[in-house]
Amino acid sequence: MVSRYPEERGAPVTVVVTGLGAVSCFGGGTAALWDGLLRADRRPVPAPDACGLPTRPYLYAAPDPGPVHPHPDTAAPGGEPAGRTSALVATAVAEAVEDAGLTAEDLLDAGLTVGTSLGDIDLAETPEAFDRRLATHRVAAVVAGRFGIGGPCQTLSTACSAGAYAVGWGAELIATGQADVVVACGGDAFSRVAIGTLQRFGLVDPECCRPFDVDRAGMVTGEGAAAVVLESAASARRRGADALATLAGHGWSCDAHHPMAPEPSGEQLCRSAARALAGATEAPGAVVLHRAGVAGNDSVESAAVGRAVAAVGDGTAAEVAGYAPKAVMGHTAGAAGVFGCVIAALILRHGVVPPNAHVSTLDPECPLGVPLGEPAPLARPSVLVSGTGFGGNNAVLAWRAVG
């Protein structure tokens, strides 16, 4: 479809956020998410079972979202409710749609982008599921059917950066006139296969996630889903919807270096960040980092993003607040990038950056400022969100306050 708003035809389209939704280890809703980030004291709990592993893994568990019965055309064999990831995503989307004030009629032409790593993996991790076909795009089908979203529908499964890609791709749909409104969301739930694989590769911290600590020993998995309603500024004005943040730019790249490890120079991630910041006259006030507690990955990311932000304006990377939410909510895989965007919008709304958690000895190699102990004032009304994933998939988004 082509944008219905003549003032935006042939001109750059401004993309804004008009709705936010989340369900995390802190509970349902963005209010619970923000409160939990400010408290900065959440620690993981034992995973549902030992998964046959020598040590029991930990998990930042989300609450039970309840069953979601999808449209019959998207139901799993036997007509059972959707899996846990679909239910979490549907819960987050419901809040975002309500927050944006979208009606059923608005959603008929809206687009949908979903980031997920494993989809409804819980439906495949049962003894009777050995012959069940599982596809990540089923989450998008369930959500589209549940809410009557009838426009372009895509699933992004670029490992841990999938959510960031979903938001960027949603913005592309709006910028190219394929939709005026896009629900961009992401989600993943606990997986025995995933946690076993991560432990086998030595990527799991046995205590808790501590991304900025010099003794960090790996990630801790988390569950959850997040959603943002993206909209052209003209569409938001027509509906009388309040814009919560403006997308200033975004960039994608791929290292093509290693299935799991980032390319050591971080050149491609830096390129994505620079593209997201193109046109900016000053460095962002904060960066919501992907930083998950894996020492090598964290260092490459912080250095690459640090170079990009230091190249903007006259400041230095040390003046930019680095924030790693995975310390208190775990690695939510396909949801992580969307959570980053929701958190960026909340930081812009409240004007503060939450404190980083679980830091005994601060990593001296991080070039960014690292708020500890209490929230730090947001120095400038802009926030960068960094997303990285296995395979070297990078996606970075720059957000600024409205007005």
Automatic annotation (TrEMBL):
<dbReference type="InterPro" id="IPR014031">
    <property type="entry name" value="Ketoacyl_synth_C"/>
</dbReference>
<feature type="region of interest" description="Disordered">
    <location>
        <begin position="63"/>
        <end position="83"/>
    </location>
</feature>
<dbReference type="Pfam" id="PF00109">
    <property type="entry name" value="ketoacyl-synt"/>
</dbReference>
<keyword id="KW-0012">Acyltransferase</keyword>
<protein>
    <submittedName>
        <fullName>Beta-ketoacyl-[acyl-carrier-protein] synthase family protein</fullName>
    </submittedName>
</protein>
<dbReference type="InterPro" id="IPR020841">
    <property type="entry name" value="PKS_Beta-ketoAc_synthase_dom"/>
</dbReference>
<feature type="domain" description="Ketosynthase family 3 (KS3)">
    <location>
        <begin position="12"/>
        <end position="401"/>
    </location>
</feature>
<dbReference type="InterPro" id="IPR016039">
    <property type="entry name" value="Thiolase-like"/>
</dbReference>
<dbReference type="InterPro" id="IPR014030">
    <property type="entry name" value="Ketoacyl_synth_N"/>
</dbReference>
<keyword id="KW-0472">Membrane</keyword>
<keyword id="KW-0812">Transmembrane</keyword>
<dbReference type="GO" id="GO:0004315">
    <property type="term" value="F:3-oxoacyl-[acyl-carrier-protein] synthase activity"/>
</dbReference>
<feature type="transmembrane region" description="Helical">
    <location>
        <begin position="12"/>
        <end position="34"/>
    </location>
</feature>
<dbReference type="InterPro" id="IPR000794">
    <property type="entry name" value="Beta-ketoacyl_synthase"/>
</dbReference>
<comment type="similarity">
    <text>Belongs to the thiolase-like superfamily. Beta-ketoacyl-ACP synthases family.</text>
</comment>
<dbReference type="Pfam" id="PF02801">
    <property type="entry name" value="Ketoacyl-synt_C"/>
</dbReference>
<dbReference type="GO" id="GO:0006633">
    <property type="term" value="P:fatty acid biosynthetic process"/>
</dbReference>
<keyword id="KW-0808">Transferase</keyword>
<keyword id="KW-1133">Transmembrane helix</keyword>
<dbReference type="InterPro" id="IPR018201">
    <property type="entry name" value="Ketoacyl_synth_AS"/>
</dbReference>
